[in-house]
Specification:
The complex is a heterodimer of chains A (234) and B (336). By secondary structure, chain A is of the alpha/beta class. In chain A, 36% of the residues lie in helices and 25% in strands. Chain A has a six-stranded mixed sheet with strand order 6-7-8-3-9-10, with helices on both faces. In chain A, strands 2-1-4-5 form a four-stranded antiparallel sheet, with helices on one face. Chain B has 336 residues and is an alpha+beta fold. The chains are: A alpha/beta (234), B alpha+beta (336).
Chain lengths: 234, 336
Amino acid sequence: MIRFEGVTKRYDSGQEALSDVSFELESGEMAFLTGHSGAGKSTLLKLIMLMERATSGEVWIDNQNLAKLSKRHIPLLRRKMGVVHQNHQLLFDRSVYDNVALPLIVAGYHPRDIGRRVRGALDKVKLLHKEKMNPQMLSGGEQQRIGIARAVVNKPPFLLADEPTGNLDPALSAEIMQLFKEFNQVGVTVLVATHDLALIARMHHRSLILRDGSLIGNGATKLAPNNDANMDDN
Amino acid sequence: MFKSTKTNRRTGENRSDSGQAINTSSHSLASRIQSWRSHHRLVAKQSIQRLLVTPVSSLMTILVLAIAITLPAALNIVITNVAQLTGQTNDHVQMSLYLQKGLSDTQGIKLANQIADWDNVTSTRYVSPQEAKDSFKSMDGFAEIIDNLPENPLPGVVIVIISEQSLSVNDAELLRERAAALQKVAIAKIDLAWLQKLHAIIGLAQQVAAVLTALLAVGVVLVVGNTIKLAIDSRREEIIVTKLIGATNAFVRRPFLYMGLWFGIGGALIALILINACKYALTNAIESLSLVYGTDISLAGLGFTNSMTLVLMGAMLGWLGAWLAASQHIRALEPR
């Protein structure tokens, strides 16, 4: 469960990235977070991962108020959520396998379990045959899938993605969205930030629409593409 | 593969409800400890491998540390040797009490026994005038002179052996004054000047060595700290990504602490080699010195215990330097 209650985020520069945002994402729900660039999508995700803290209002994850979460417990919160980053955030000094194994090592899994889980995750994104390669040698789409494998390898209850299809062609984008959908079907709460409106329209999921830091849409998204298109023109 | 997610999440919720730390993984404590240990082993191995990736710069750092460790260690060895040498020649400090003329041997022996009970006195011995005369006679050239004297000019002497352990220069002087105040004693003599000087010099040298040791220990910490800071800077991206994935500061710090540890141990080991090489180089010189003086002078090295202590100290300083650098710089590296 992810719940925002009147969350405002103002950066030190004075810029207000989010203003009074409230919504709730049920456990096992899948939703899109959309809006023009600079609308506050990334900030919203950062508040969930505690890369930033809310200036006012409350962010709740699984009945836990993040404002009351001490610095010491941030790592444990982050282990609960798989995050797919826009720029992959892969490490190029090690193999695909080692990249995907990292969350398990960090969480203190037994080496015996690590191999099995890593291969399972790589198999899911169809990159098992490239486990020994350096991610640098792979295409953008493959790198993104490694990022996804790493995000889900420890079976987190939450999956967050920030523009996961940003630089990919439509076919690859659809493939990756399909992956997210599969994860959602087995109970993972998924929140995908994207401005790929055509994609959102096809998926029939709830969408949270941000505009200049305010939540202007929060519901099923049949008409969202048109509205959003207008919004982007503004 | 995600079948278990829901139950995992539920346990996670329960834990967070009870105010406990959030945790989605259900693995047991025993397996956690086991994996924690295997991670330590892995990190220890990897941090050595990392040092070997850049052998020249690693070796340079280790050599700098080795020199910084060798200097105070060698100085301390020199001081220990000098102190030992003076200790040998100075096993006991003697005080000579020249007695008033005309005292009988019985009185002299009585006095000697009396003084033997004093604090700081190990033993006493009465040397009668006759005995003193005989011992002079046994020396070349003295026999005739002494025989030609009309009467024995030598007084009775009580030789007081002062226990060295308790002997500060002040204590010795107090003892001398106490003896000199006795009626039967004409002159009380103790040669403290050289002892005073020597003790002062050794004391000074020990202080210099202590200051130097402290300074160079700080130097070791700083050198390791700076090297670790550079290592952290070069692995910035990795640290941020690992933190995003949920690594604790302790986890991120660990490889750098091991790196500092290896630097410290490496520096100390090379220092041991340097010290023993110096000792070996000096052995010939010491042997010929020993021949000239006709005494058995041997150079005390570090020995096993001190060698181990040195390595331990190196390890601790390396670890400390790494810890200082890592805790400061890694905390500042937060994903943004």
